[in-house]
Amino acid sequence: MKGYVFHGAGQSAWEEVPDPAIKEPTDAIVRVRAVTICGTDLHILKGDVPEVPPGTVLGHEAVGEIVETGSDVRTVRPGDQVLVSCISACGRCAHCRRTMYGQCRGGGGWILGHLIDGTQAEYVRVPHADLSVHPLPAAMDSKEAVLLADIFPTSYEVGVLNGHVRPGDTVAVVGAGPIGLAAIATARLFTPERIVAVDLAPSRLEAARKLGADAVADAREAPEQLIADLTDGLGADVVIEAVGVPESFELCTRMVRPGGHVANVGVHGKPATLHLEDLWIKNITITTGLVDTYSTPTLLRMAAAGRLPTAQLVTHTFPLDHMEEAYDVFARAGDTGALKVVLGEEQHDAVAVRAV
């Protein structure tokens, strides 16, 4: 079979790789029908995630068909159409018993495309299949379903739920990339009074408006003043950080009101300053987290019922063997307008699908 292989910083290729095989009785082999590319994959290609060994097939999100299962797999069988979660869970360790699947100590957590071969291939081995794949609702479109492997549960759990968004809140989302846009979409489920999106790119701010942001602000033009004006100087009840750079985190702490929440979702590669000299007196709650994907079954039902705007985030589709072209389009999002790119056996054109 073929897969997209990381060979070290700046080196990768779509090439022949060994077919995956059952190694443990809890494994499943999935034929990949649709995959997407994550910003984390770009970090790996830059060499920012040193624990990924050269020779690893990348990718941690997929939709596909079960073709083989180990003897201990009980919840799926060959022929089932499933979502492959970005997080694998043994279900038995102390963290999994608390639904903290991202912290699994039994050989799970974020392992696909990280510590073992991932989903950007024709087939993938999924460990701990009973908790790590989810049967798809009937007739659900694969290119929309794949967005529920990572960005929607990440935004919902680490952003909206950790931030304790409530009816009537003012919610600011800093960063209107795919994660930030999914945070806007899922924050709306809690009927906040207003959602404000902050970004540098006009195209992403426009996408934020179409997904439900009530106001938008250029990150270079003092967005904290807009928040102050909208809240009589109080600040936002919840601020969701969806970028992962020091400047955006520090901006979030300036925008939040006393007693408010800063929910950090962005993946940070550099230290950020925590201004406790200003924050210690303000009763601020700051949360961080790796997604656990405990919400994935709920989100799948909501998406199948048309309650989540998954289709609006897919801007480009490609056949699976156009992986290098898809990576180039996604990496140059500022030029291409890419939000999420989806590749698969059903995606036969490389033309942008502009839905936002």
Structure description:
- The protein is of the alpha/beta class.
- It has 2 domains: 2-150 and 293-344, Medium-chain alcohol dehydrogenases, catalytic domain (Quinone Oxidoreductase, Chain A, domain 1, Alpha-Beta Complex); 153-287, NAD(P)-binding Rossmann-like Domain (Rossmann fold, 3-Layer(aba) Sandwich), CATH 3.40.50.
- The protein is 25% helix and 24% strand.
- It has helices at 39-45, 129-132, 142-145, 151-161, 178-187, 202-210, 223-230, 246-255, 276-279, 296-304, 323-331, 333-336, and strands at residues 2-8, 11-16, 28-36, 56-57, 62-69, 81-84, 123-126, 133-135, 170-174, 194-199, 215-218, 236-241, 256-264, 285-287, 314-318, 340-344.
- Helix 6 (202-210) links the parallel strand 10 and strand 11.
